[in-house]
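re: the backbone from monday

yeah here it is again, tokenized this time
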């Protein structure tokens, strides 16, 4: 479970461009690639869903 949470925050930081190179390298050494891909897919789905909710709320 900790790997998934770490991977999710790593993907989020990378998506917003605030992840340091040191953390990036450490994540790729310690996290399995399947977990990182899964976290990336989950982050993308949640991000798109959030955008859809905000847009539908702002534009009635």
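seq for it, each position gets an aa:
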């Amino acid at each position: 479970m900790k790997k998934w949470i770490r991977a999710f925050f790593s993907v989020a930081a990378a998506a917003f461009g605030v992840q340091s190179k040191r953390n990036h390298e450490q994540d790729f050494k310690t996290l399995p690639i399947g977990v990182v891909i899964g976290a990336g897919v989950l982050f993308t789905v949640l991000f798109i869903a959030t955008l859809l909710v905000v847009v539908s709320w702002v534009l009635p």
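The helical segments are 2-16, 21-30, 33-58. DSSP finds three helices and no strands in the chain.
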